[in-house]
Design goal:
By secondary structure, this protein is mostly helical. 47% of the residues lie in helices and 4% in strands.
């Protein structure tokens, strides 16, 4: 046992929640783990929830946008363009307010922009979802931290 764990400052610290049950991890004792910065949006479920929330917001505000992304130009299809705008909104408005936590190169949002540009809404959306599901430090370490968008099938 390390000195930090003995003092209660280790990664798996425990705190009593509002309901009296013990909580573990870096988000123990926080009010909203879905938006807590140390957990990168509550882990995988938080990232997926955030992606769909931003997508729903962008679909309701179809005319709003932040312009072209330097990683890739906007895709041609309507659905891909709506998804692109939602990721672009995340990159411009949400991401700068949070600490960098993506273990991959390129980051998940850059991957999403490039996947939508190269593959469109259907295959690009599937690639993005798969990337978000494997966006964990252990998986990234095993994969060498580099995970580019696959080329267009011929």
């Amino acid at each position: 046992m390390t000195q930090d764990e003995k003092r209660g400052r280790g990664k798996n610290r425990k705190k009593k929640g509002a309901d009296g049950e013990e909580e573990e991890g870096c988000c123990a004792g926080t009010l909203d783990t879905a938006t807590h910065p140390c957990c990168c949006g509550g882990g995988i479920s938080g990232q997926i929830y955030g992606l769909f929330a931003v997508l729903a917001l962008s679909l309701t505000r179809a005319g709003a946008g932040h312009g072209a992304d330097p990683a890739a130009p906007p895709p041609g299809g309507r659905m891909a363009a709506a998804m692109y705008r939602s990721v672009r909104h995340y990159r411009v408005a949400v991401s700068p307010t949070r600490p960098a936590c993506c273990p991959y190169t390129p980051s998940c949002s850059t991957y999403a922009v490039k996947a939508l540009h190269r593959h469109g809404a259907l295959r690009g959306g599937r690639l993005i979802l798969a990337r978000l599901l494997r966006c964990r430090p252990g998986v990234a370490r095993r994969r060498g931290r580099h995970d580019p968008v696959p080329p267009v099938r011929g």
